[in-house]
């Protein structure tokens, strides 16, 4: 396996790894020293395997996760496309600047590659966009985007001045939660906004008995790998599975090379039905 990895384009043309790594629930304060070491080793292995897109947030572990990511990226920062997220209640014009500074400090870096509004809150979008744009001008972030925005939120964002500079929408999307296929994925493709699929293996809560089992057995892989390969089939979508164990990271990387057959897709569509009508965007 090489570190050459499939990529997707940001609106400006820069390419990022199609398969990255999530960090939610990593580095939590009550975790054992062994678990912390495993998580750091897992992230570093993922980067070595080309999964250089790393997603974190100020929310995770109240900042403890960003500190762990900073430690894991020691000597690797330049190899990584680093994403963090601001709480909606910090997303005012000045609030994003303060929150960003705190994230940069915990992460031990001078810039984020992508900064996302974690979900929509009470602050007017105009203010958040102005704050993000100021951070871009100051060189603290390279791109900004949003998370948990449904189609109508994206339309609203694109209607405000500067809103169309949004470089990403990170949403819940996996084989068991296919709502975005009805309108959000087509809208995003049409507007050229890439989508980052979070919880791509449904937070390890995929159904216990489903066609995933037979498909996994027929390819000699795990159900997690089938679920990941399924998400990654979609152009314009990248995915950020979280794996705190090195063996899971290796399995996830291998999923990028797994090609599901038309028969596999038909079996999955029969069980995990594609949406026939609008479903409100789900959140974890
Ligand atoms: P996920 O990636 O779907 O699932 C993570 C779980 O699956 C962990 O328990 C992990 O176990 C297990 N796992 C991963 N790969 C595996 C494999 N190959 N074999 C067996 N088990 C495997 O769920 P997630 O953490 O909710 O989502 C991914 C990332 O998306 C998050 O970490 C976070 O960065 C982001 N996220 C964003 C939002 C948002 O609102 N924007 C919400 C949720 C998540 P181990 O850890 O033991 O390896």
From TrEMBL:
SUPFAM superfamilies found in the cross-reference section: NAD(P)-linked oxidoreductase
Stretches assigned to the NADP-dependent oxidoreductase domain: 18-270
InterPro entries named in the record: AKR (IPR020471), NAD(P)_OxRdtase_dom_sf (IPR036812), NADP_OxRdtase_dom (IPR023210)
Molecular function as annotated in GO: oxidoreductase activity
UniProt xrefs under PANTHER family: ALDEHYDE REDUCTASE, OXIDOREDUCTASE, ALDO/KETO REDUCTASE FAMILY PROTEIN
UniProt name for this protein: Diketogulonate reductase-like aldo/keto reductase
Organism: Paraburkholderia eburnea
